[in-house]
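Hey team,

Filing this mostly as a record. A colleague (T.K.) asked me to run one chain through the structure pipeline before their review meeting, and I want the input and output archived in the tracker in case anyone asks later how it was produced. No errors, nothing strange. Just documentation.

Input sequence:
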Amino acid sequence: MDIDALLAGVERGARLHGRRESLRAVNGVLGALADVLPPRAMELLGPHLPAEIGAGLAARARTETPASCRAFLDRITAILYVDQPDNAFLARVVLEHLNTSLRVISPAAFAHLVAADLRPLLQAGRPAVARNQPVPAPLAGRIRVPAAVPTPRKQLA
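Output structure:
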């Protein structure tokens, strides 16, 4: 993953003022995510992150937070010192860019581990998966019924 492309996308999407502010936003959102997800999930995600971002995550202390949307957004507010609507906006922009940038495993892969109200935020930027099953062919076209030939009846005399 190209960190410059990620940070430029976050900078553009969140209307931030440079690379350092984008890096701070990405580290803050990932730090809040590390507090919400189980430690094993972050161990799996860590190797796929750029070294600059991974170093920031490894250096911080984990604060156990309930895996709900409100707790996640409150944690972002505490880490980044942003106001209420801005925390959700920053989280969505950063998670969108992480989900599209990371090829093997991304935050969307761990959406099943959090509360239902946080799942759409973690899956931001992922294309919707079509759950439609293929329509089967009509049953009459698949069954072959042999032609029934009536047997002659014996005539009673």
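Quick notes for T.K.: The mean pLDDT is 83. The first helix runs from residue 3 to 14.
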